[in-house]
Design a protein that fits this description.
Shape: rod-shaped
Number of helices: 3
Distance between the termini: 91 Å
Mean pLDDT: 86
Number of domains: 1
Oligomer: single chain
Strand order of the largest sheet: 2-1-7-6-5-4-3
Radius of gyration: 31 Å
Largest sheet: 7 strands, mixed
Number of strands: 7
């Protein structure tokens, strides 16, 4: 699944300011309409993968929270979400190329960060269809393999220097020795 970048996500919101903003986090399962956008985080990430390669990217994480005591029939308008984005961007310029993630959880769904698969209009709603993020091996995305390299060595374990085995040889020539009873003395 292609990741959605912040600039594109924001432009899709800006194109539909009068619609209700809905989040679908599982098949036919929606974040309750009383949700709030509690914060927007920008996370620059630097990592080193199992192949020893450094990677860097940025994520913008929109956190949703549903209060237990508050219930309403309609979710916030897109323009309300955009006003929160504007407020955030006055204090924290968000990277337009950052990967967008939506963070959500409730009593039936453990909190996690999910990726917007698509934004689609359905009647008076702009629906953000969320899908779980997946763990991946970056070596595979570079054309390598996860688990072993081209020599059949494991890529995810520290390299262990294998010392060559040597065979000891007796350099002393076999010669008569002076031992008791040998007659040499």
């Amino acid at each position: 699944m292609e990741t959605l970048k912040w600039q594109s996500f924001k432009e899709q919101l800006q194109a539909s300011p009068t619609l209700d903003l809905q989040f679908q986090y599982a098949e036919n399962t929606w974040v309750e309409a009383s949700y709030h956008i509690t914060e927007i985080k920008q996370a620059p990430i630097t990592s080193v993968d199992c192949g020893g390669v450094m990677n860097a990217w940025t994520e913008v994480i929109v956190q949703l929270w549903v209060p237990e005591e508050e219930h309403q029939l309609r979710s916030m308008k897109v323009r309300k979400a955009l006003s929160i984005v504007d407020l955030v961007e006055k204090a924290l310029p968000l990277n337009p190329n950052a990967i967008v993630k939506i963070e959500f959880g409730n009593a039936q769904f453990d909190t996690r960060q999910m990726l917007p698969k698509e934004l689609r209009i359905d009647g008076e709603n702009l629906i953000v269809d969320l899908r779980p993020d997946a763990v991946q091996c970056k070596a595979i995305t570079r054309g390598g393999s996860c688990g072993t390299n081209e020599k059949g060595e494991e890529c995810c374990t520290p390299a262990v220097e294998v010392k060559p085995k040597i065979q000891l040889k007796n350099l002393v020539a076999e010669a008569p020795s002076c031992a008791p009873g040998s007659g040499c003395c």
